[in-house]
Amino acid sequence: MQDADAFDDVAFLGTARTSKRDPYRLSLFGAHLESDERPLVILPVQGGTLLVTDRRLLELRAHLEVHGAWNVKEFQGYMIQRSLDLGSVRGIDHVVRPAVDGAGNRRIEDRLLLTTANDSADILVSRGPDATLPDADFDVLRDVVLARQAK
Asked: What pTM value is reported for the model?
């Protein structure tokens, strides 16, 4: 478990680039890290946050507990939705394509497609009127994710 100080040198990408670096929130992310694991990149994705460390790629989701008769949801921190060993990632592509939502509205889907040693993974970055991951940010993400393969 690490505190917010572990995130001092992290690259904040996408819409996180302009967000406030909340120490409390960062410490909640740090709760999922090993003591010697180094966080490298934070990218907001649809419904959560993508955290890339020197070892893993973690897709984190807010953990909400339902309390009371009104089913009020209370934020309890973050949980790991998906974890990929960084060494198993062989490729990463950024795909932006048109889509139609359930109401017939045209949207843009901004996705990351990861190829791993055993499978593939698809991460929805955003769905809306515009893509949210600039090409320059994807280049940073790709370089960090594939850095282990270059060695």
From this structure: 0.85
